[in-house]
Design a protein that fits this description.
Strand order of the largest sheet: 5-1-9-8-6-7
Structural class: mainly beta
Radius of gyration: 16 Å
Number of domains: 1
Shape: globular
Strand content: 35-45%
InterPro entries: DUF1203
Number of strands: 9
Helix content: under 10%
Order of helices and strands: EHEEEEEEHEE
Length: 158
């Protein structure tokens, strides 16, 4: 079974960059500048921002389901980021980070989960997708708990 990982749609975040700091604050968001080239993972490009890049830190509902598993947390998005997509490969933002992988049924209920240490994400994703009850996976950075990306089934391997 192959899988697809896609960054969030940048169109939903683009207007935030034109807002004043006060308007951002009213939306529980803030403008930040990356202080290093690691540690500011963009959820659109699925890459860490480079030192000095402008980002918006905002509250994001990543799992908007009518179950006890509804989830939201802070995420970063980079100015001008283009949505990433990987097929059967993990994006750069997963590399070097321990991840919590949560496998959900189509109705949004948790079916199973795995911890993936650096270098293990691909194998753990495939392990979860071996379970036919799992429709999709949410990856979270294990240390901070923030949403990293959604992983969907993509088709059968040739």
């Amino acid at each position: 079974m192959t899988y697809r990982i896609a960054g969030l749609d940048p169109a939903q975040f683009a207007p935030l960059f034109a807002m004043s700091d006060d308007k951002l604050a009213a939306r529980n968001a803030r403008r930040v500048t990356a202080a290093a080239s690691r540690g500011y993972p963009c959820r659109v490009s699925l890459q860490d921002a480079d030192e000095g890049e402008e980002l918006i830190l905002l509250h994001h509902v990543s799992h908007d389901v009518a179950t006890p598993y509804r989830s939201a947390y802070a995420i970063y998005v980079r100015r001008g980021a283009v949505a990433a997509e990987t097929i059967d490969a993990v994006p750069p933002v997963f590399e070097g980070r321990p991840l919590g992988l949560r496998g959900f049924a189509a109705d949004g209920t948790l079916q199973d989960a795995r911890l993936a240490l650096p270098g293990e994400a691909d194998a753990r994703i495939r392990d979860l997708l071996d379970n036919p009850a799992i429709a999709y996976i949410h990856a979270h950075n294990a240390a901070h708990g923030c949403f990293a990306a959604r992983i969907d089934r993509h088709g059968d391997r040739l």
